[in-house]
Amino acid sequence: MRLGERDLAACCASRRWLAAVAALPGDDLGELRRTSRRVLDELDWADIEEALAAHPRIGERAGGDGREADWSRREQAGLDGAAAELRAAFAEGNRAYEERFGHVFLIRASGRSAREMLDELLRRLGNDAGTERREVRAELAEIVDLRLLKLADGKPAEGKPAEGKPAEGEDA
């Protein structure tokens, strides 16, 4: 399972993250996941913003036909069929969030309902900047880990990573 840069770039748009994980020798999925998490934890905020720029707003369909766009559409499937008032609430919440924090609201959408995601958006609007940056980093790490697992399995990314479980071969 040697993954190329194009495959990895679909997992995370940060060039610094990509350089670090693409440089790994071998095909150990556990090592890839551990390295990914470590690098994500160490990224500067500018690197996180670079990754965020590749994510569509929650409630908006990703354009394009690449792997990342396809995954994003599948990950946001919980919004398919959402009522008009719920979609309107997302649009307003996204606007308020971007005005407050200066970037797109990021949440692991896989495995979450539209109501759950909206509740999280509204809750996180009350965060201070430091708290929100930590939450964004944690959500990005979950999204990237899910996408790495999808790549390894050759499957579309759906569901969520195992909560509270370390990567394969990692101590708790």
From TrEMBL:
UniProt domain Oxo-4-hydroxy-4-carboxy-5-ureidoimidazoline decarboxylase: residue ranges: 8-148
Single Gene Ontology BP annotation: purine nucleobase metabolic process
Enzyme Commission number(s) of this protein: 4.1.1.97
TM stretches of this protein: none
InterPro entries, per database record: OHCU_decarboxylase, OHCU_decarboxylase-2, OHCU_decarboxylase_sf
Pathway where this protein functions: Purine metabolism; urate degradation; (S)-allantoin from urate: step 3/3
Annotated protein name in UniProt: 2-oxo-4-hydroxy-4-carboxy-5-ureidoimidazoline decarboxylase
Alphabetized UniProt keyword annotations: Decarboxylase, Lyase, Purine metabolism
Origin: domain of life: Bacteria
Reactions performed catalytically: 5-hydroxy-2-oxo-4-ureido-2,5-dihydro-1H-imidazole-5-carboxylate + H(+) = (S)-allantoin + CO2
One MF term in the entry's GO annotations: 2-oxo-4-hydroxy-4-carboxy-5-ureidoimidazoline decarboxylase activity
Annotated coiled-coil segments of the chain: none
